[in-house]
Structures are given as structure tokens and as C-alpha cells.
Specification:
Blueprint lengths: L1 E5 L11 H15 L3 E7 L4 H5 L2 E11 L2 E10 L8 E5 L15 H17 L6 E5 L6 H7 L11 E5 L28 E2 L2 E2 L1 H8 L2 E4 L2 H7 L7 H6 L4 E3 L26 H15 L8 E8 L8 H11 L3 E8 L1 H13 L4 E5 L3 H10 L2 E4 L9 H7 L3 E5 L2 H6 L10 E3 L4 H16 L1 H12 L6 H14 L1
Parallel strand pairs: 1-2, 1-6, 2-5, 6-7, 7-10, 10-11, 12-13, 12-15, 13-14, 15-16, 16-17
Antiparallel strand pairs: 3-4, 4-5, 8-9
Helix pairs in contact: 1-16, 4-5, 8-11, 9-10, 9-14
The protein binds adenosine-5'-diphosphate (ADP).
Length: about 475
């Protein structure tokens, strides 16, 4: 079976968040299961594209409204990648130092049109086109309705919603840039009077998946305006929990961390990593270390963290370290706290892949007080590194973390409020003090299996059911 994943991000080429981790892992595991799975993504101006070799496979021009835009399709000649990766190269639109900007409509429209034109030109067509998030949300529509691509309309198109908050809204001034179609189908693009690529993909894809079963259910109640659409289309929707790439996220072999360790050596291994982190960031290594890694946005509950940290550090003997970036106001508040709690609190505002690995290896607890969490990968990385997740039970967090009081292994809270997060941290800290139970739990969580094998098979079964 030949599968083409279409995405704006893919680890290790370009990563902003979990989308990259998923698109960098799922094809690899599908490939291992015997499927001919590949990825096509934009050719950005970044470290990966500057330091690898590429072969040009196809050169052509695409129509974007009245403009004619030259593009090429490149294949990476990178032996470390375990599945084929193709790129759409459009110098003035996609070849940028960033992945996303404030004005991406034309960039991702051109990317999608070039992808469809390229697929049209292939002798050996895919059996499945698998689109990810709103940046590729017009492909299911184009495959079904655009005159140019009529010959592709028997190829099943799947869409995966990694995050329904972002929908790629486009004003009608861009309508003429979408490859021509019969205007009686205009309604498929529209949701509430605006072109909505995510809504169009939900309407037109053959199957819609979300990245956890609970998130699928929650979206029918709360989906940034798409609740009714998802409820109406529920027959073709399914939630498949993401896995993690256990080759990349493995404390035994992780080259980013200070000391590698296994279940047997977890105590000394984590101690060595924590020692390094605490020395580097002026924290007390003898105290339980709570960490947060992620985007500082409302969905992650990040706005509450400065107040939570300030309160809890006054009453509990713990250390806190945060890695993230996002809302400037939250960043400023978090930085300010350093003056009030130096020695017990520190933060690194920015994005740092290596540091994130060291934190998973060092921390005793990982905080995830999310308001919305489609799947969440951090909690699964934490588990693999023997770090206890402290999570709000929502979406994928609900599907992967069971509270210690329910014979589980993590700390769960139901609400996103300062009081409930503080209460959860207090429970965690008490748990830490029970050394025997805490250490046994550490070994236990490292054995939990969240690898991609199960989910990669679930996707293959889904493809087979419609092929
Ligand atoms: P989302 O995609 O909503 O941001 P996920 O939990 O699905 O959240 O995935 C987040 C991924 O991004 C994880 O791999 C996490 O380690 C990584 N990450 C988030 N923020 C940072 C950061 N500031 N530095 C390094 N890695 C980060």
C-alpha cells in the first residue's frame, strides 16, 4: 500500500510541536509494517535543508489565481531518515526561516496545489493521501471537486485533526486561487460565512481521525465552532491515540541527555541528569523537581502558571523549571518570578530540543495543566523517562494517565484553576516523600508501552477499510 502524508511539519526537519513528532514517526512505523509510506512537506530554509543533499524529481509551474508560480519537487538523500521525504520548493513562498507566519494563506494554498499537481503527474499513484491539520485541509476538497484533479477522486483521502483550535480561515478574496470547481459545491468550503479549510476537510475527507479517542468525543461539545459539523460527521470520525517514537525517546540511548539509564539504573541516571540541570540553572537538586515544557498559550493552562508557582514556592520545598515560549505577558511574568524565588525556580524562554530531553530525564514530575489537549506527547515522553506526569484529565491526558489513587501511576486533577493545580502539586510532593512507593512507581511507568506499533496498525486497518 502506497501512502503519502501531507504536512507542514515533520521531525527532524521542521518542528513546532507535536504535529512534527507524529508525522516524523507514523510513516516510519508504517514503513516497518510493510507499507510504502512517505511524507511531502514544504522546503523551508532551515538547518536540515542546508545540510542535506536533495534530488530534484519534478519541475513545473502551478496556477495560483492569475499568477503562475514555478515549483519543484525534491527528495531528501538523507540515509538516516527511515522513510522517503519529498519537498515542495517554492522559493518566494515556502523557502523561509520559519514554518508559520501571520499570513500563510497563499503559502499553504500553493503548497497544496503543487502537492496535488505532483500526485497527478505520478505514474504510480498513492493508494491513500493522508492530510494533517488545516494547512492541508483543502486537499480533500480539491481531490473531490476541482476539475484538474477529477482523475484522483477515487483515491481515499484521510484527514487527521491534531488541533481543532486552528482552522486556517480564509476570506472569500482568495476563492479564485482555489483550483476551479463547480460553484454549486461552494458550500463545502464554507463554515459560518468564511472559507474554513479544516471544516472543508471534515466534510470532504473519506475518514477523519483525531489523535485520541477522548478528544474526538470532546470535539463534539467544544471545537472552536465546529461542534455541530463533527457531531453530524461522526460516522466517519475515529480517535486513534498517538504513539511515541521509542527510538528517539529512549533514556537508554538518548544522545541529548547527560547520562543514559534504564529501568534498573533509573535512580542514579535521573540523579546525574538532575544534578547537571540544577547546577546549570541554579536549582537545589535535593528537592523534588517539577517541570513544564511547552507552548505558553491558553490551551496549555500556561497563563495560570506564574501565580501557581509563586504560591506553591512560598509553602512547599520544591524546585520548578520551565521551558517554553508563547504569550509575551506570560513570558514576562515567568521571568520576573526568577527574582522572587531564585535558587528554587528557573525558566528558559525559547525552544530547545536538547534541553527538553534533559528535562524529561531530570525532572521528578512534569506539569500539564491543559485546558485542551488533543493527545499530548509530553506525558508519554515523561513516563518513558521515569518522570511522573501531573495532568489535568482531558483529551489524550485522560486516555494515558491514571491517578495513583485509582491504582494508577500519575497525579490527575479535574479543573484548570490555580487551586486545583496547587492541590495536585501538593499531592505529588507528598507522594515524592514516600520514597519506596515513588521509586517503585518510577520503574513501573518506564515499562508502560506507548510505542507507535499499535497506532500505526490502527491507521493501516483504517486505510484498508476504505481502499
Ligand atoms: P503541542 O503540539 O500542542 O504543542 P504536544 O504535547 O503534542 O503539544 O507536543 C509538544 C512537543 O513539542 C513535544 O515534543 C515537546 O517536548 C516539544 N516542545 C514544546 N515546547 C518546547 C520547547 N520550548 N523546547 C523544546 N521542545 C518543546
Amino acid at each position: 500500500m502506497k501512502i503519502i502524508h501531507v504536512s507542514a511539519e515533520c521531525y527532524p526537519i521542521a518542528k513546532i510541536g507535536g504535529l512534527a513528532d507524529v508525522v516524523g514517526a507514523l510513516p516510519k512505523y508504517q514503513y516497518q509494517l510493510g507499507a510504502d509510506s512517505s511524507v511531502i512537506m514544504p522546503f523551508y530554509n532551515n538547518k536540515f535543508t542546508k545540510t542535506n543533499r536533495f534530488t530534484e524529481l519534478h519541475e513545473s509551474e502551478l496556477k495560483l489565481g492569475h499568477d503562475t508560480i514555478p515549483y519543484s519537487v525534491l527528495r531528501a538523500e538523507a540515509p538516516d531518515l527511515e522513510f522517503p521525504i519529498y519537498f515542495i520548493h517554492i522559493e518566494h513562498l515556502l523557502y523561509k526561516e520559519y514554518v508559520y507566519s501571520d499570513n500563510d494563506v497563499e503559502r499553504f494554498l500553493a503548497f497544496q496545489i503543487a502537492t496535488m499537481d505532483w500526485i497527478l503527474s505520478l505514474e504510480n499513484k498513492p493508494d491513500i493521501i493522508h492530510c494533517h491539520d488545516h494547512h492541508t485541509g483543502l486537499i480533500p476538497f480539491m481531490a473531490q471537486e476541482s476539475y484538474n484533479y477529477k482523475s484522483l477522486n477515487k483515491i481515499p483521502v484521510i484527514t487527521t485533526i491534531h488541533n481543532a483550535q486552528y482552522q486556517g480561515w480564509m476570506s472569500y478574496e482568495y476563492l479564485h486561487k482555489i483550483p476551479e470547481f463547480n460553484s454549486k459545491y461552494l458550500g463545502l468550503l464554507d463554515w459560518n460565512g468564511i472559507i474554513n479549510p479544516l471544516a472543508a476537510s471534515i466534510k470532504c475527507a473519506w475518514r477523519v481521525t483525531t489523535v485520541s479517542p477522548s478528544y474526538m468525543e470532546e470535539l463534539k461539545e467544544q471545537a472552536n465552532g465546529l461542534e455541530n459539523l463533527l457531531a453530524a460527521e461522526s460516522a466517519k470520525c475515529v480517535g486513534i491515540l498517538n504513539g511515541i517514537d521509542t527510538d528517539v525517546w529512549n533514556p537508554e540511548t538518548d544522545s541529548f541527555i547527560i547520562k543514559n539509564y534504564t529501568k534498573t539504573t533509573v535512580t542514579s541516571g535521573k540523579k546525574a541528569n538532575k544534578k547537571w540541570l540544577c547546577k546549570e540553572y541554579d536549582l537545589d537538586e535535593t528537592k523534588p523537581l517539577f517541570a513544564f515544557i511547552g507552548r505558553l498559550v491558553g490551551e496549555k493552562g500556561a497563563g495560570l502558571l506564574p501565580k501557581v508557582f509563586n504560591e506553591i514556592l512560598k509553602s512547599k520545598d520544591i524546585s520548578i523549571f520551565l521551558l517554553g515560549s508563547g504569550f509575551k505577558e506570560t513570558e514576562t511574568e515567568l521571568l520576573y518570578l526568577k527574582n522572587l524565588h531564585s535558587g528554587n525556580y528557573n525558566t528558559y524562554i525559547g525552544y530547545d530540543e536538547k534541553l527538553s530531553h534533559i528535562i524529561y530525564a531530570s525532572a521528578d514530575f512534569l506539569l500539564m495543566p491543559s485546558r485542551v489537549e488533543p493527545c499530548g506527547l509530553n506525558q508519554m515522553y515523561a513516563l518513558r523517562y521515569g518522570t511522573v506526569p501531573v495532568v489535568r484529565s482531558i483529551g489524550g491526558l485522560k486516555d494515558t494517565v491514571v491517578d495513583i489513587d485509582s491504582k494508577g501511576f500519575g497525579i490527575c486533577h479535574q479543573d484548570v484553576s490555580i487551586a486545583s493545580i496547587i492541590e495536585a502539586i501538593k499531592r505529588a510532593s507528598d507522594f515524592y516523600d514516600n520514597k519506596e512507593a515513588f521509586n517503585a512507581n518510577r520503574k513501573n511507568i518506564m515499562s508502560l508501552n506507548h510505542s507507535w506499533e499499535v497506532s500505526a496498525k490502527a491507521y493501516l486497518n483504517l486505510y484498508n477499510s476504505i481502499n
